[in-house]
UniProtKB/TrEMBL annotation:
It is an enzyme of class 4 (lyase). GO terms for biological process: fatty acid biosynthetic process; lipid A biosynthetic process. Involved in unsaturated fatty acids biosynthesis. Catalyzes the dehydration of short chain beta-hydroxyacyl-ACPs and long chain saturated and unsaturated beta-hydroxyacyl-ACPs. It comes from the Bacteria. Signal peptide: none annotated. HAMAP family: FabZ. It is found in: Cytoplasm. The keyword Plastid does not apply. The gene is fabZ. This is 3-hydroxyacyl-[acyl-carrier-protein] dehydratase FabZ. Belongs to the thioester dehydratase family. FabZ subfamily.
Length: 141
C-alpha cells in the first residue's frame, strides 16, 4: 500500500501519520510497514537538540498504526477506528536516528470482539530496535 491507500484506511495525518508504506499485508492477521526517518520530523526539534533520536513512544505508535492498517483493511472493520489500549512487555533495544529506515512488523495474536492484541517488532536493517505487545480496541467514529 502506498501513502494514499494508507490514508484511506486509517485516519492519521501529518504530523502524526508514522507509516510511509505497507510492504506486506494479510488482512486482519499481519502487516509489515516502512517508515523513512528523516531529520525533518517535527519531534527532532526537541528530542534531542544536537543528538536527534526518535522517541520510543512514537516507535510504539508507528507499530500500532501498522496493526490498525491490518485490522481496518478487513471488510468487516472498514470505516472503524483503531484505538491503542495497552502496551505490554515493550523493550527498546537501540536508537532510531535520522536516515534510518524503520521496518515495522505486527502480527495480531488475539481478537475477542472489538478488543485485540498483537506482537510487534521494529527493526533497522537486521537489528531489532524495539519489540513488545500492543492491545487495541476497534470503535465506530
Amino acid at each position: 500500500m502506498d501513502i494514499t491507500q494508507i490514508q484511506e484506511t486509517i485516519p492519521h495525518r501529518y504530523p502524526f501519520l508514522l507509516v510511509d508504506r505497507i510492504l506486506e499485508i494479510q488482512e486482519g492477521v499481519r502487516a509489515v510497514g516502512l517508515k523513512n526517518v528523516t531529520i525533518n520530523e517535527p519531534f527532532f526539534n526537541g528530542h534531542f537538540p544536537g543528538y536527534p533520536v526518535m522517541p520510543g513512544v512514537l516507535i510504539a505508535e508507528a507499530l500500532a498504526q501498522v496493526a490498525a492498517v491490518a485490522m481496518l483493511s478487513s471488510e468487516g472493520n472498514r470505516g472503524k477506528i483503531g484505538l491503542l489500549a495497552g502496551i505490554d512487555g515493550f523493550r527498546f533495544r537501540d536508537q532510531v536516528k535520522p536516515g534510518d529506515t524503520l521496518i515495522l512488523e505486527m502480527e495480531i495474536t488475539r481478537m475477542k470482539g472489538t478488543i485485540g492484541k498483537g506482537r510487534g517488532v521494529a527493526k533497522v536493517g537486521d537489528k531489532v530496535v524495539a519489540e513488545g505487545e500492543l492491545m487495541f480496541a476497534l470503535a465506530n467514529p
